[in-house]
Amino acid sequence: MKIIKIILGVIISFAVIFLSTGLIFKETAYTTQVEVQKPLEEVFALFNDSSKITNWIPELQSIEPIDVKPEKTGSTYKMVVENKNGEKITLQEKVMAYVPNEKVTLFFNAETMLKTDDYTFSFDNGITTITNNSVCRGNSYLVSCVFPYFKSVFKEQDQGYLNNFKSYIEKN
């Protein structure tokens, strides 16, 4: 009986810690960055060319415009990605800010995740630097409890996409 109480106490402790995570961390934030050996205008143009995005985001199956605004800010797109298990996930992307050759802020609404990617572009000594400040939130409290434990996975994936972009643009 004493062993059962100890095991039950450990399980309850882990459950309390896990559920407290969602109260303490409302969102998961991280930064990724890459330097590209190309002019700013070329990098910015290619980065924002939705017809080329599958060249650095291999999981992306399709991107379809829903509502495209002439100034880009406010435009929305339907995206379909395929995860590692072969499942297709549909998400909606909204352009929250678009300043040519300076900044693009994208908001993604996926099935369980709300994510904002704030990309800034700068140029110095022949090198364009892309910095992405990302913020992830869950659509539910339980999902929000999980996200802080996957911060390194999210960051690694976004860094991989930036590295893929760098490789793609520097080859062309």
Automatic annotation (TrEMBL):
The chain crosses the membrane at residues 6-25. Belongs to the AHA1 family. It comes from Tenacibaculum skagerrakense. Keywords: Membrane, Transmembrane, Transmembrane helix. This is Polyketide cyclase/dehydrase/lipid transport protein. Residues 39-109 form the Activator of Hsp90 ATPase homologue 1/2-like C-terminal domain.
